[in-house]
Each structure stands twice: as C-alpha cells, then as structure tokens.
Amino acid sequence: MGVSAVGTSDQNGVPHKMRTIIELSPDADQAPEWFREGVKGAILAPSAVNQQKYRFYWNNGKPEATKGMGFYTDMDLGIAKYHFNQAAGRPVFSV
Q: Does the pLDDT of residue 1 top 70, yes or no?
C-alpha cells in the first residue's frame, strides 16, 4: 500500500534531473510512436525515492517492463506502468 500527496503549493517547485527516453528504453527508436509516448509518460511519473530503476523494452514487437534492485522498485514499476499506459493511450501493461 502506498500514499500519494496530491495538490498544489504556494511555493515554486525545483526542477530535477530526468532520465532520457534512451536511458529508460534503449531500443525505443525501433518501437512505434505510441510506445515512445508511453516511455515519455513513464519519465514524468513520480517514484518513491526518485530513482526510476525500471526500464521499458521493445522486444520482438512486444513491449516489456523490468525493474531493478532496491527499495520500492515494485511500487515504482507499477506507477511507471500506469503512466506509460495513460501516455500511450492504451492498456499495454496490467497495473
């Protein structure tokens, strides 16, 4: 179970470093546009400790998602899959 804070603040946020499409999906250039849009959505997804230890692959014409090692990686992957689906405009991954 997790908790997400939703809302706005009267203070401006601070930009943070984001991974590139190629860092999260090394073979995204060989995938269709909807897949690349999904990866862009995953890049913007929040993560538990801002590590983004997940990757998306276009493997033999099918999308795949993997997680790395560490705390909260299962939760982070689920959040990223959800954002991927929303940005791709289709239910690619079950979440």
A: no
Cα distance between residue 58 and residue 30, in whole Å: 7
The number of helix segments (H) and strand segments (E) in the chain equals 3, 2
**Per-residue DSSP letter, 49:** T
Least confident of 4-8, 29-33, 89-93: 4-8
Which tens digits make up the pLDDT trace of 5-27?
Answer: 677 778 777 777 789 999 999 99
Beta-ladder partners of 54 = 67
Cβ-in-10-Å burial (0-12, 13-18, 19+) of 56 comes to: buried
pTM of the full structure: 0.85
Q: Give the max Cα distance, the chain.
A: 47
Phi then psi for 56, rounded to 5 degrees? Answer: -115, 135
Distance of CA 33 to the CA centre of its chain: 16
The answer to whether 62 and 31 are in contact (CB under 8 A) is: no
